[in-house]
Model the fold of this input.
Amino acid sequence: MKKITAPIGVFDSGIGGLSVLKQLLRFLPSENYVYLGDTARVPYGNKSDATVKQYAEDCTKFLLGKNVKLIVVACNTVSAVALNAVQKLAGEIPVIGMILPAAVAAIQSTNNGKIGIIGTRATIQSNAYSKAIYELATKQNIENKNNANSKNSVEVFSQECPLFVPLVEEGFLNHQATKLIAEEYLQKLIAEKIDTLVLGCTHYPMLSQLLRDIVPSVVQIDSGEHSAVSVLRLLATQSLLCEENKDYTVKHNIQFYVTDYPNHFYELSKKLLGFGIETPELINL
Done:
């Protein structure tokens, strides 16, 4: 039987998953966590599906070795092309990805039915977000076909943003070069008059303000935020939530592991989490 106090496992290709961990801490502050950043092999977004699957299985095996009660795939690329592999390996351990929760939120957010998706090449080329959004919209339209107030059908516009991950990993969050690249990437989506933008990579919330400066009237969907809500609901349903700890100290409840020490790790972790991670444990997968 799973122990309530067992940790939640979180993994990402690098430090972007810390944006998901931040949301998990927001909604589930009393839980214990194991975070794994595969920083030696980042980014996953330009790798083949077979390679991403192998990397995802390596990370999953590591977390299972930590006796986690749930796994959060804090990587949109893995969620898009290898979620089934993670679920199969995890067995009875629940797995939450990034795609479905964000797709639901995007449909609920849009008013004009025009939804933009930005992500890595692997995520965009998988069409995982488009498929999820269109399937949800079709289901919604069928359920609401007699409702005159139901929303119109949606349109999804996707854009690969392969340079965003290395820019974030290097700490170029507010750099002029990053802004110029972002303006180029978003040009097509702006032309389509999207009103909702899914940040289809866990690195992208770090660029949230920069993106807001470019498209101020567009609602941003943070996949990590909505996945964290899904984790809360699932653990509550299965009675696996830790008891609330009023003396909770966040640093004491998280174990951090990386496969390499990336540049600006302390600075970026402090910006994301509110505290810097000075000495994550270095491991080999």
Q: What stands out?
A: The mean pLDDT is 90. The domain at 100-223 is CATH 3.40.50.1860 (Rossmann fold). The chain has two domains: 8-97+225-282, 100-223.
